[in-house]
Amino acid sequence: MKISITDNGSGIAAQLAKAIGAEVNGRFIHISKSKGAGYITGFNWDGEIRMMIRNYHLIEDITIERTNELADQQEDVVFLLSGIFPLTSNPNGSLVLEKANILICRHAVSSVMAMPRDTLFGSVTIAVSKKHLNQLFGHIRHPVVSTVLAAQDNLVFESRVSAQIIQTAAEMLGQPVPDCLEKQYYKLKCEELLTHTFAQLMQREIIPAAGLHIADIKAIYAIKLSLQSRFTEQPDIAKLAETANMSQPKLRKLFRQIFGKGVFEYYQWARMQEAARLLSEQKLTVSEVGYQLNFINLSHFTKVFQKHFGINPKRYAMVNS
Predict the structure, then answer these.
(1) Distances in Å between the alpha carbon of 137 and those of 48, 106, 147, 199, 293?
(2) Cβ neighbour number for residue 122 with a 10 Å cutoff
């Protein structure tokens, strides 16, 4: 199903609910059984902070084409924290978690959101005004943080999800306070998520931020997709740069600026994420995973995996079985 939605500044939750026939009950939008299960909910604190929580899965693929009418006037910075809720119920074993990730950007004039079926979307999207963001974090003297606070056009950063973010998100699934305090409670949790996100940014390597053009962003994300889909081939920087129509130094710089990792470092990290998925979800053996990811030496695979996760793959498989 393809849905076209226009965001006029109030978000897309209500329009999405109408498009997929979801039931609205107070601040909750419940996904009907004919479409999947779960809910969307959110809050708006005087336009300074808006938060949307998605905790649902669908039984058919949905693609949303989103247009933002107020993009030229808005100064919001958007934080999309994906895959931060646990998979609490999966009776048929058919659901998979969306990949954990943090994306920081400005509101785009238009964007496409793909929501594949049988995927648990456990995410929090936070839109914060530039003014309020500076009130919260303007005292921090760190180049990466300063770049986010400046919120220039085409701002794009990606970061990993920390254990602290997952813990805070899990606490948000319940409501330990009376209804009259829920808005205040969730605002605190929202700002807690932002605090943990900025803590992640402060761990990044400090490099001068280069201006980003839309063509460059698209090219770098095409490279990211290539790395995630070819785990058996080590990246060839020269070929990637040629395909992206940019110099090798520029490719390396922009890739590290956006993702906080070099090309090969990101490839190895994504490769280990896939290894963990094959061990925990597909229940493959350690040797099967090593072979599938083109590790000729099984002991080398074990060493690389342990470096990333602090535990060897055999033990990881046992703990996550």
Answers:
(1) 14, 17, 12, 11, 41
(2) 26
**And the tokens for 160?**
């990993």
**pTM of the full structure:** 0.85
Identify the H or E element spanning 119: strand 119-129
Kind plus residue range of the DSSP H or E element containing 143: helix 143-150
**Interaxial angle between packed helices 143-150 and 182-201, expressed in degrees from 0 to 180 and rounded to the nearest 10:** 130
Q: How far is CA 66 from the centre of its chain?
A: 18
Q: Is residue 127 pLDDT above 50, yes or no?
A: yes
* pLDDT range class, residue 4, cuts 50, 70, 90: confident
The 8-class DSSP code of residue 177 comes to S
CA distance 150 to 107: 14
Q: Considering only CA atoms, which of 66, 57, 61 is closest in space to residue 16?
A: 66
* C-beta separation of 165 from 84 below 8 A: yes
One-letter-per-residue 3-state SS of 253-271: HHHHHHHCCCHHHHHHHHH
Give me the helix-helix angle, 130-137 and 143-150, nearest 10°. Answer: 150
Residue type, 219: A
Q: Which two tokens stand for residue 321?
A: 């079985």
> Per-residue pLDDT for 109 more than 50?
no
- Composition of the chain by helix, strand, coil, percent to 5: 45, 25, 35
To the nearest 10 degrees (0 to 180), the angle between helices 263-280 and 298-309 is: 100
| Cα separation, 102 vs 165, whole angstroms | 10
Q: What is the arrangement of strands in the sheet containing 2-7, beginning at the earlier edge strand?
A: 2-7, 62-68, 110-115
Query: Residue 43: what are its φ and ψ, rounded to 5°?
Result: -140, 160
State which amino acid sits at residue 72: D
Q: Identity (one letter) of the amino acid at 249?
A: P
